[in-house]
Amino acid sequence: MIKIITDSTAYIPSEYLQENDIKVIPLRVLFKEEEFDEGLPGSYHSFFEVFTKEKVFPKTSQPSLIEFTNMYNEIIANGDEAIVYTISSSLSGTNSVANLAKEQCSAPEKITVIDSQSACQTTWGYIMETVELIKAGKSREEIVQAISALQENSTICFVPDSLEYLARGGRIGKVSATIGTILNLKPILMFKKGTLGCEKKTIGINKAILDVISMIPQNIKKLFIIHIANSKFFELLKSKLKGKFNVPTFEGEIGPVVAAHIGPAVGVAWIC
């Protein structure tokens, strides 16, 4: 049987993981001299309580080689094979570690590692599709083909609450952040096929949310409404999206690894 492995940045609720026997290998977070596994949605509250109030910038790290190797060997020993999803190789070395572990495991031919070229709930979307394809009896090769087609247009968009965290992480200059804050400038960050860019800059959160919604294609298969650190604009985004897309829609929480670079934010992700 084909088993699914992912890293923690897919941010999949524990109930879905349990129902579908999906294994998760966590990335690590170093914050205020404490190092911990990222964990699953629903477990981030205490981190964000401190993160949003103190001027401490977290560091993140990829899982260890032995974590991947042991999990592969366990699955292989049970007579199964595996598809492994990782955060985009453009954001983390996790994909490289997953591939190195494949080379070192007991049966490399039974492991397929997929670079999501994304993060967050787009990866969850790929995994949902994979679950259905496994139930339909598709092979690993057929599943890889299907997911590759989805990756062409699947996207995640964020609107940060403020520019402070992007400036702290060096993604924008402090002067630009100060001017942007004065002007109430809201960048729309888009991550697609491994590339993060600023799609548009908008004045005010209401206009930014409307612009994000306008970017969502009509032919999507699944929609995810997402937030980082319980953004104060999450309810606003949900209300603006209500009834606009007749597709399966899910709410999602994003954890410390991605939050470390963006700060509190709202956004959407889709696969199509």
Explain what the structure shows.
With 272 residues, the chain is an alpha/beta fold. It folds into two domains: 2-26 and 62-151, Rossmann fold (3-Layer(aba) Sandwich), CATH 3.40.50.10170; 155-271, Hypothetical Protein Tm841, Chain: A,domain 3 (2-Layer Sandwich). Helices cover 38% and strands 28% of the residues. Helix 3 crosses helix 4 (94-104) and helix 5 runs antiparallel to helix 6.
Sum up the structure in keywords.
four-stranded parallel β-sheet, 28% strand, single chain, Hypothetical Protein Tm841, Chain: A,domain 3, 2 domains, 38% helix, six-stranded mixed β-sheet, Rossmann fold, 13 strands, 11 helices, globular, alpha/beta, 272 residues
Write the layout of secondary structure elements.
Blueprint: E1 2-7, H1 14-19, E2 22-25, E3 28-31, E4 34-37, H2 45-51, E5 59-61, H3 65-77, E6 81-86, H4 94-104, E7 111-115, H5 121-135, H6 140-151, E8 155-160, H7 164-168, H8 174-182, E9 185-192, E10 195-203, H9 205-215, E11 222-228, H10 234-241, E12 249-254, H11 256-262, E13 265-271
Parallel strand pairs: 1-2, 1-6, 6-7, 11-12
Antiparallel strand pairs: 3-4, 3-5, 8-9, 8-13, 9-10, 11-13
Helix pairs in contact: 3-4, 5-6, 9-10
